[in-house]
Write a sequence for this structure.
């Protein structure tokens, strides 16, 4: 999809006006500069494996770096996506599901066709095979699993823009009565069952512990779960049980080490397995019996065997309409320790053991390794959170202790960290390979089905192409545990539970070098979303009703390119343009270094780009960033070496700078929290803001919370920035080259910077000086609130509590022509500016209800905030399709000049900015009144300035 398409057909319309603030640029104090110089050398504030100043360290390039023509050093993404491209167009159709008129349940028939196709590909040595579904509407009543390489499930089209001749619509309706037994299954397997095997049980346990009234599932708590081995007569040979840990919220998913069953399988040619669950009320549910025919129990176990790395599956709870599952039975998951630290850019790993020997795994070229560094105490103390660091690579060659891998490492894997040794190691992975889903629709008609559309675990070269998912129960398009995956030309429309945790994500979890391109997402929670992983790319895509998130895990070197994200007030998003977890969030943890947001269009109603803690070397380049409230960039804790360059920034918040250090985290809205967060600003350093165009803001590039002695945190460099009057229609910037991704594929060796690159790596280069806006005199600022909240009215603001026009504060004359409607709202006041957005008063319909203020004749600039932050759509309706019914339309007249709500959408508030004249023909009054077509019009505050000639 072309850039012009996103520029001209943006799915969310930007709001209509801006704020400005009348403060001069603050001069940094010498004492603070001295503090800054000390902190530059403070390596303890960063992860130990991060190269500093990565985007400009051209003298120390590694094989993991790529130099762009703009002079910036970027990570490499030329390997993202299915290796060699999606191959299924050349594959034969090996199985077909028969067509019958009318909707019908095809679950068993489709599963049988998938298994038959996999066996045929394996037995006949085919590159891959297609299972073809006919045109029509069909029901799937249980998950369909793919466990063979080279299997693609293909329909006849997803309709509308789809390439097929029609539509194949699959209605996933796992709608069982509440008193029916749970669906339990054991992963189908054709390999050998050995003492090293892992037995994976999954299904629907009908359990949800946190809300007994939740319509998704009844509140039936599990006491314990188990797996038993049976003989031919059905007698129990061995029964293993574990108490429920209460972690998994929606699905039953457990792994069992086969050796836990002792001698149950010895001397057996065939064995039988049966999973079971016991609930707190004593009821025991038994699953189906699974037959195991291929047992090799005499094979000696591999020394040092560990349980498979289940976390690689990320959020994959194996609860989906389609599940693509790699080999977790015969996975020889022995950890092999690194003997030498592997640095970023290295392509050789050195091990303690000789990996050609069977007792150390007997690996060979082509095998895939998960390279991992533990979440050490050293790391946890510095991040107050943290997740293991990892990368998936393939073996090219083995020479004893030395292993050549197929790509440079993206981070450093240390051997020793703090007081701990043996920090980094590898684990072999045996993924399902070259599998996919194409040309069909998956729809979820039942809100009780908290199921995903597609889930993967341990997969390589997996793809979704031309798939539409409608009203998903959990995840619509979320690639988990995948190496070289691809989601292309897909649409994900609506979600049943977009405001619930763990639902409605579009993105990647524990995946590496994967690609999402030409995707549309509507009404999701977080999209695009990154959970750990490295080297993933999202490009040429459009997401409406969500936010951009680095949500969970140590996500490294992801690229977001030419992506539209916004209109996110009606979904379950956090409301920020971008969000990363704050320091101390042990569940989610801070993401890693060198992530890049490039040439994208991103909108945040309640915040801009929020970096919570321990991010290094991020690049924000050539984006349009539109923020209603708060700074464009909030950097809370230990932010180092970021580059903000060439962006167009639209800010409607007159109280905020472009960059705020020590910014509050979510749920930190008290004055005490503000002061504590302000002290974090001292740890931020090395940030460059270059050649950005800012419309609005408080006329400052960088500051911190006013309560802190470290409020003015200096930048490493700033030059060429312009702060201009508000302009919500400011166009997107034009990057110096069309695409990083395409340029890297065409020039993997890098490109020579032009004679005058956008970024000059010389640390002493000053560039053009920054330009700040010429501000006019502040004449009046009025806050609309309740009389009982006068004590919380910000200083220097005149209160408006609903009285009729007359003499008021400080000799001013203002008020309503009739008593105002008593519809003011007061939420908890937060920072000095936010309280103003949490109060309002309503304009009743009709021209007789107006507000005015008396002013000397002249020309004035006005900034007017309208809306209700609590009820942006005025309907309180939950279903996505119903959310466009009762929203506010903020049209207003100012001295007869129409200020129109440009988007007419479900905003928390709109801000209008205009220049108007006051004279004798208006009785020297500035008059506000509802305009024709307005609906639910409310005013929060107004600021009036003398216009600059």
């Amino acid at each position: 999809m072309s850039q012009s398409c996103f520029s001209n057909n943006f799915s969310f319309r930007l709001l209509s006006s801006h704020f400005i603030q009348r403060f001069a640029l603050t001069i940094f104090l010498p004492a603070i500069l001295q503090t800054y110089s000390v902190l530059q050398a403070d390596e303890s504030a960063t992860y130990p494996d991060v190269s500093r100043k990565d985007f400009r360290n051209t003298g120390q390039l590694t094989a993991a770096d790529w130099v762009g023509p703009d002079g910036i050093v970027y990570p490499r993404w030329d390997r993202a996506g299915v290796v060699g491209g999606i191959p299924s167009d050349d594959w034969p159709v090996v199985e077909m599901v028969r067509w019958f008129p009318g909707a019908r349940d095809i679950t068993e028939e489709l599963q049988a066709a998938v298994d038959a196709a996999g066996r045929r590909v394996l037995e006949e040595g085919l590159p891959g095979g297609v299972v073809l579904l006919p045109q029509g509407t069909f029901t799937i009543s249980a998950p369909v699993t793919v466990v063979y390489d080279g299997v693609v499930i293909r329909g006849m089209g997803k309709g509308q823009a789809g390439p097929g001749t029609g539509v194949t619509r699959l209605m996933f309706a796992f709608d069982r009565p509440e008193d029916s037994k749970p669906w339990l299954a054991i992963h189908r397997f054709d390999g050998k069952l050995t003492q090293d095997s892992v037995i994976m049980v999954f299904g629907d346990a009908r359990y949800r512990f946190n809300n007994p009234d939740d319509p998704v599932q009844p509140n039936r708590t599990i006491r314990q779960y188990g797996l038993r081995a049976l003989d031919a007569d059905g007698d129990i040979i061995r029964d293993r049980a574990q108490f429920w840990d209460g972690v998994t919220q929606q699905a039953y998913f457990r792994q069992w080490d086969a050796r836990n069953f002792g001698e149950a399988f010895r001397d057996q040619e065939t064995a039988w397995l049966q999973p079971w669950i016991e609930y707190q009320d004593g009821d025991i549910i038994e699953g189906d019996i699974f037959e195991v025919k291929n047992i090799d129990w005499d094979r000696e176990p591999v020394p040092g065997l560990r349980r498979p790395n289940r976390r690689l599956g990320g959020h994959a709870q194996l609860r989906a309409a389609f599940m693509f599952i790699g080999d977790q039975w015969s996975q020889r998951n022995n950890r092999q320790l690194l003997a030498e630290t592997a640095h970023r850019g290295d392509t050789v790993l050195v091990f303690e053991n000789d990996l050609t020997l069977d007792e150390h795994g007997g690996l060979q070229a082509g095998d895939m390794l998960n390279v991992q560094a533990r979440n050490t105490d050293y790391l946890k103390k510095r991040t107050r959170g943290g997740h293991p660091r990892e990368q998936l690579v393939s073996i090219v060659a083995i020479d004893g202790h030395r292993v050549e891998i197929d790509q440079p490492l993206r981070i450093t894997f240390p051997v020793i960290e703090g007081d701990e040794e043996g920090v980094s190691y590898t684990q072999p992975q045996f993924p399902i390979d070259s599998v996919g889903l194409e040309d069909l629709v998956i729809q979820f008609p039942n809100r009780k089905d908290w199921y995903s559309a597609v889930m993967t675990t341990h997969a390589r070269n997996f793809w979704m192409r031309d798939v539409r998912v409608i009203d998903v129960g959990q995840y619509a398009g979320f690639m988990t545990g995948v190496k070289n995956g691809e989601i292309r030309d897909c649409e994900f429309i609506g979600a049943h539970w977009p405001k619930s945790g763990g639902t409605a994500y579009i993105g990647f979890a524990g995946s590496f070098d994967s690609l999402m391109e030409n995707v549309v997402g509507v009404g999701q929670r977080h999209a695009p979303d990154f959970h750990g992983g490295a080297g993933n790319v999202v490009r040429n895509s459009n997401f409406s009703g969500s936010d951009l998130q680095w949500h969970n895990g140590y996500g490294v070197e992801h690229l977001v390119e030419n992506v539209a994200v916004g209109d996110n007030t009606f979904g379950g998003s956090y409301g920020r343009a971008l969000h990363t977890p704050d320091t101390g969030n042990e569940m989610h943890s801070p993401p890693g270094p060198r992530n890049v947001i490039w040439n994208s269009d991103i909108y945040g109603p309640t915040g801009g780009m929020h970096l919570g803690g321990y991010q290094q070397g991020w690049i924000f380049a050539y984006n349009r960033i539109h923020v209603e409230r708060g700074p464009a960039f909030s950097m809370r804790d230990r932010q180092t070496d970021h580059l903000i360059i060439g962006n167009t920034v639209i800010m409607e918040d007159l109280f905020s700078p472009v960059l705020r250090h020590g910014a509050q985290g979510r749920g930190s809205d008290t004055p005490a929290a503000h002061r504590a967060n302000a002290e974090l600003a001292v740890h931020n350093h090395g940030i460059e803001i270059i050649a950005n165009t800012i419309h609005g803001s408080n006329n400052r590039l960088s500051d911190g919370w006013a309560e802190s002695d470290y409020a003015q945190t200096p930048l490493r460099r700033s030059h060429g920035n312009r702060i201009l009057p508000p302009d919500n229609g400011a166009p997107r910037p034009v990057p110096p080259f069309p695409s990083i991704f395409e340029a890297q594929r065409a020039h993997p060796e890098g490109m020579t910077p032009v004679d005058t690159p956008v970024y000059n790596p010389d640390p002493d280069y000053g560039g053009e000086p920054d330009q700040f806006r010429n501000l006019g005199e502040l004449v009046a600022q009025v806050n609309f609130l309740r009389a009982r909240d006068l004590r919380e009215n910000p200083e220097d603001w005149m209160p408006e509590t609903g009285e009729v026009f007359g003499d008021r504060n400080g000799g001013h004359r203002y008020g309503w022509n009739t008593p105002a409607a008593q519809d003011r709202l007061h939420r908890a006041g937060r920072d000095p500016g936010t309280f103003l957005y949490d109060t309002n008063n309503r304009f009743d319909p009709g021209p007789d209800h107006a507000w005015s203020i008396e002013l000397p004749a002249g020309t004035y600039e006005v900034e007017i905030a309208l809306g209700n932050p609590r009820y942006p759509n005025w309907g309180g309706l939950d279903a996505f399709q119903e959310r466009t019914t009762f929203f506010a339309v903020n049209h207003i007249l100012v001295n007869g000049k129409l200020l129109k709500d440009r988007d007419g959408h479900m905003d928390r508030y709109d801000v209008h900015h205009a220049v108007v004249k006051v004279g004798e023909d208006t009785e020297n009054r500035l008059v506000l009144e509802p305009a024709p077509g307005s609906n639910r019009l409310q005013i929060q505050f107004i600021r009036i300035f003398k216009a600059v000639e």
